[in-house]
Amino acid sequence: MALAQEHGVPLCDNPALVELLAQIEIGEQIPEALYITVAHIIAFAYRLRDPQTTQPGPAGPLPTPRL
What is the CATH number of the domain that holds 8? Predict the structure, then answer.
């Protein structure tokens, strides 16, 4: 994380989310319980790419998903 911060890579400090996502293998289907959380992550990435975007996206804190 220190290396990412040193290079200006945006981070989300959410240990519960990291733990949940670490359980999913690359290429594995995202569990339905994580759809909204993943939508927040995708919206965050789009806003990073274009901070001036007027496209609506999820707002507010990430919900705490349960698998």
Answer: 3.40.1690.10
How far out from the chain centre does Cα 51 lie? 16
Note the pTM of the prediction, 2 decimals. Answer: 0.55
Domain count, the chain: 1
Residue 17 resides in a domain: yes
Q: What is the pLDDT along the chain (67 residues), one digit of tens a residue?
A: 789 889 988 877 778 887 888 889 999 998 898 888 888 888 878 887 776 665 555 555 555 666 5
For the chain, the distance separating the N- and C-terminal CA atoms, rounded to the nearest angstrom, is 26
58 closest CA partner among 44, 67, 23: 44
Long-range contacts of 34-37 (CB under 8 A, 24+ apart): 34/65, 34/67, 36/63, 36/65, 37/62, 37/63, 37/65
